[in-house]
Amino acid sequence: MSSFSNETKNELARIFPENRCCQVAELSALLRLNGQLELTGSAKTLCITTDNAGIARKAFKLFKVLFGFPLTVIMETKRRFNTSRYYQVRANLDEQHLNILDKLGFIDDDNRLIYGIKRGMVRKKCCKRAYLRGVFLARGSVSNPGASYHLEMVFPAYELAVDVQRLAESLGVSFRLTERKNNFLLYLKDSEQIVDCMRVMGANYALLEFENVRIYKSMRNQINRQVNCETANLEKTLEASWRQVENIRRLIERLTVEGLPEQLRELAVLRLEYPDSSLKELGEMMSPPLSKSGVAYRMKKLEELSERLS
């Protein structure tokens, strides 16, 4: 994961929703994608696993504020998530706490599992933003804008991916959906859409950094295009000048300068004397001055005369 992605997640992890409905929505997204329900005998444990300390702190605070039951945080050093350290926020549930599975949107009124987003959990715009933020914290990443434009979120279930895609669409962010290695992927490659997504989630500092890099890249590309265009034009001018000089030299070898038609003689001498000058500059040196189109016409006559005598 890029350092920019980690910075974005650290910023989002510091945002704590004010409204209870938004707190529930964000915790639901974190649990849905980074959580699991462990059953050991009669004991039931709900836990969130992450490699980011900021996300672990946020999950702990959301659990504490919403439900108030005892929590434990475990930090282990193992090879997991491509890092050597990960965190688990664990909540031991007894019978009176099992109703939180319904409140967090994992089961319906008939105690059946819900694989998408529970209807009614994200009715408000603020809850939609909180849920999308939770999804990104759990399974999202964004590439360094200096290298490429790519933001993605990974889902184990198709239903949830589609529901999040629709949720994001209602907020003005249009994700594309694809399948990769038995997972489902929502992704953005358009820089404007990535900016909109970061704004919706609340990653304002990361957004400013992204925009600064994007503006720099745009200016650099524009300068490169301009330099390439000017270089190509210069090469064409030099190639044409070389061809014109060679034609005039052949004419002089056969006709001498005095033998050139009078209306072409001055231009021929100027081209030999100033081989690097443009047609416009040659026209300004003539007496009387001649327009660029007039110089081009006479130069064409010189080339046609050279071809006839060759």
Quick recap of the structure?
The chain is an alpha+beta fold and 310 residues long.
Number of helices: 11
What characterizes the major β-sheet?
A: 4 strands, antiparallel
* Fraction in beta strands: 15-25%
- What ranges have pLDDT less than 50 throughout 5 or more consecutive residues? none
**Principal-axis shape:** rod-shaped
The share of residues in helices is: 55-70%
Q: How many strands in all?
A: 8
SSE run: HHEEHEEHHEEHEEHHHHH
Mean model confidence by pLDDT: 85
Top-tier CATH class of the largest domain: Alpha Beta
**CATH fold call of the largest domain:** Endonuclease I-creI
Radius of gyration: 35 Å
Spatial gap, N to C terminus: 68 Å
The count of domains is 2
| Superfamily (CATH H level) name of the largest domain | Homing endonucleases
Q: Give the second-level CATH assignment, the architecture of the largest domain.
A: Roll
Output the structural class.
alpha+beta
Question: What are the salient characteristics of this protein?
Answer:
4-stranded antiparallel β-sheet; 310 residues; Endonuclease I-creI; 56% helix; 8 strands
